[in-house]
Structure formats: structure tokens, C-alpha cells
Amino acid sequence: MKRLKYSIGVRSVKVINILLITAAFALAWFLHYTNCGAHKALGIRGEIVLVCLFMFLYIMFTRVYDAFMISASRISEMIFSQVLSAAISDAVMFIVVWLVIPDFPHIYPMLIVFGAQIITSVLWCVIAHKLYFAILPPRRSAVIYDSREGFEHLISEYGLQKRFKVELVIKDDECLDNIECIKGMETVFLSGVSSSNRNDILKYCIANDIQVYMIPLVGDVLVSAAKQRHILHLPMLRTERYNPSPEYLFIKRLFDIVSSLAVLILVSPIMIITAIAIKLCDWGPVFYKQKRLTKDGKEFNVLKFRSMRVDAEKDGVARLSTGTKDSRVTPIGRIIRKFRIDEFPQLFNILGGSMSVVGPRPERPEIAAQYEEELPEFRLRLQAKAGLTGYAQVYGKYNTTPIDKLRMDLMYISKPSFLTDLSLIFATVKILFVPESTEGVAEGQVTASGSVEKKEKQTV
User: Fold this and answer.
1) Phi, psi at residue 326, to the nearest 5°?
2) What are the backbone dihedrals phi and psi of residue 299, each rounded to the nearest 5 degrees, phi first?
């Protein structure tokens, strides 16, 4: 009953936000655009449908951008996600309004609506965040680890100490020797715990109503795609290699061609200006070709705008970028990297078929070989065609460890669907404004196993 009340309360607060944001659009529609001929074209039912369409779009985008994660997001993160959701919904609805009314609609009512939505989001996020943590104290939590230490520091680093109060940090073997040590905890985090030890801890937690968060093992992700079957009067799980339906592959390829061609046309002026700027910077080549791996380990040349010096790897050694502090990056390179303009030429790779819009990020053969020495299963990422964006690109960072990139890419590969692709494409819009997603390896860790390195150490 306590959980039910909590769930109803949180959902009610979210509904208030949705209604307020939708009300702002509805006021602009009924007070202005209906006077521009929309009422005659649609009638009252059609107008109500349009308002409902806005609400649907807003709900959909808030889900994509995790705009209502009060317990796990900072206030600024929630505001940004909600404002972005409202902005995209407003833009789509303005196009719809344009198609409905006889003349080109005035944009100022929508700008006023957007301003009101920003104010609403700020007020809602501040009040909801304060109320949530005033009513709900931080959950008593324990971190149980094996090969992956330091997880408790991430809770503080990401500002989640209001949500989780870590009272115990213990190694898995020690925990199993005295499993009662986690009795009374409300949440348990499992970090790098082997499957055999983890299963015993999981059983205890479920039996004692303890919530569990765990970093999945590679095997867990593979099994998550398993299909339930009943054979020999026994429950079974069937797993197999990446094998999407022909319909999905056809739609995906058609979308790749149409979207890459359309975006190339739209950004062509930016690409021309960028090419001229790179040429004038040091008179070197405009584009940079580099061997990358795609489906089944096939090599192809990825195309980018050159952002580094011509002699960046004159010694022939493959190195990962160290982010904004990388001395090899040119002044123009820093700008085009910041706004992801250096990635635009990859649209030609997508149009040609060597890449897809969504898929695992293509790695260099030399870097991949180094990872595979320590992590042979890293090659499982090559089941699907490489992509410009994807699960790891959206939810990870440049310096996310290879083992974590593998887990995220396998999550995408395990359940391919066009709706997932669309969701990741829209989610990519958000990370374009998040500088942390392009941090270099010198600012974090890059060992394949996921162990933490010193921040000043550069690892390839």
C-alpha cells in the first residue's frame, strides 16, 4: 500500500506538469490561431485533437529525454529535458498549424507559449524536487563490489546522495559470509559481482524486500534478448546472433538513405564554410579518412572533417583523443568538435551503406585489437552495422570504458526495432548540448575491464 501511494503521488505530480505545459499551447491555439481560420477548417473536435496531439508529443519526448526522473536527476537536468521536449513539440505543432490555416501563421504566439512553458518547467522542477526529497528521506543503501571498486563515489559525483545514503561498502565474499549485514537496507548496488555470488545476494534481497541496482554482465545482456520457449515440457530461453527481420532491415536502410540525403542538403552551407575554414587554417586536407570496423569486422574508411594537425599520428601509433586538452587538435578543430560538425561527412558513409544512422560506434582496428586482448567479447559489437549514433553514444561518454560500451551496444543489438532507432535519434539531440559526452580519455578511464585509472594518465 505504501508503494502504491508513492506511485500515485509521483504520477500525479507528473500529470500536473503535462497539463500545465499543454494548457499553455491550448491557450495560444484557442485565443489566437482559431481566429486565423483554423476553426472553420477543423471544427471544435479537430481543435481538441490538435491539443491532444501536442500532449502526446510532449509526453513522448519527456520519456525520451528522462524529463521526469526527479529521484535521479539534478534540477537543471530536468529543466533542460522538459524545455527541450516542449521546444520540439511546439516546433512540430507550429508546422501543423501552418498546414491547417490558410495563411502563414504568426510565430510570436508560439514564442510567448514557449516562454510560459520555460517558466512553468523551472517552477515545477524546483518545487517537485524540493517536495520529493522533503517527503522522502534518502534510502539506506549498501554497495557490494568485487572487481569494480569506487561505485559509491559515483553516487556523490552525480548528486544522488539525497536519494541514496550509502551506509555500507563491502566486498561480495565478505557480504556472503555474513549476509545479514545488509538486513534493514532499502537499496543495494551490485558492482562487478560475479554471477554465482550475485545470485545468492539477489535471492536474499528479493526475499527481504530490498531494491537492487546492478551493472549487468555481458552474459546478462545477451540473455535479455532471449525468447521464451516451451520444449520437452520445460521452460527454455533461446538466444541467437543478431538476426533482425527483413522488414526492419528494409525500413532501416530506406530511412538511412532518405534521412542522410535530406540532412546533407540542409547542412551543405555549413559544410562548405567548414571546409573553407579548415583549408585556410593550415592549408592541409579538408577531410580525414580513417579505417574503421563495421558489421562482421568489415573495414571501411570513415569520412570526417579534419580537426587535428596533419602530423597528429606521424609516428604511426593509434591514439584516442584526450578531449579539449588534446594538443593535436587545431583551433578550427576545437570549434567543429564542440558542435559535432566534424561528424557531418559521415552522412556520405551512411548514404553509401557502410554505416547506418543508428548502430554501434565504429572503432579503429588497432584500438579494437587492443581491447580484444583483454576483452575478447568486445568483438560482439560487430554483429550490427556501425552507426553515427547509438546506445553507447547517447548514454555513455567518449571516455566510457570499453566494457561499458560493449554492454550498451549489446543492449541495442539484443532488441532491434525502428522505434528504438527513432528514440535514440531524438535522444541524440539532447547530447549535442552536453559537453561531458565528448570528454577525452585523459579525463577518465579506458581500460577494457573498466578499472579506474588516474585522471592524468592517458591510456590507449
Assistant:
1) -70, 120
2) -90, 145
* Cβ neighbourhood burial of 207 (10 Å; 0-12, 13-18, 19+): exposed
Tally of residues, the chain: 460
Torsion of the alpha carbons at 10, 14, 20 and 22, rounded to the nearest 10:
-150
Helix-strand-coil split of the chain, %, nearest 5:
60, 10, 30
Residues 203 and 196: beta-carbon distance below 8 Å: no
Strands 211-214, 234-238: pairing is unpaired
Q: Is the pLDDT reported for residue 446 higher than 60? A: no
* Cβ-defined contacts of 8-16 (< 8 Å, 24+): 10/70, 10/132, 13/70, 13/128, 13/131, 14/68, 16/124
Place of cell 579534419: 306
Burial classification of residue 356, based on how many CB atoms lie within 10 Å of its CB (0-12 exposed, 13-18 middle, 19 or more buried): buried
Strand partners, 190: 144, 214
CB 459 within 8 A of CB 339: no
d(CA 190, CA 175): 11
Mean pLDDT of 5-10: 83
Alpha carbons within 13 A on the beta-carbon side of 97? 24
Q: Assess contact for 427 and 396: CB atoms under 8 A.
A: no
Q: Can you tell me whether residue 13 is helix, strand or coil?
A: helix
Beta bridge partners of 227: 238
C-alpha cell at 235: 521452460
Q: What does the pLDDT look like over 76-114, one tens digit per residue?
A: 999 999 999 999 999 999 888 888 777 777 888 889 999
Distance CA 352, CA 389 (A): 17
pLDDT at 197 over 70: yes
Beta strands in 279-379 (DSSP E): 287-293, 299-305, 356-358
Closest CA relative to residue 85, chosen from 117, 61, 114: 61
CA–CA gap between residue 169 and residue 181 (Å, rounded): 11
Contact 132, 70 (CB under 8 A): yes
Give, in order, the Cα–Cα distances in Å from 39 to each of 56, 106, 112, 171.
Answer: 21, 16, 21, 67
All three cell numbers of 190 = 551490485
Percent of all residues in the chain with a pLDDT value above 70, rounded to a whole number:
89
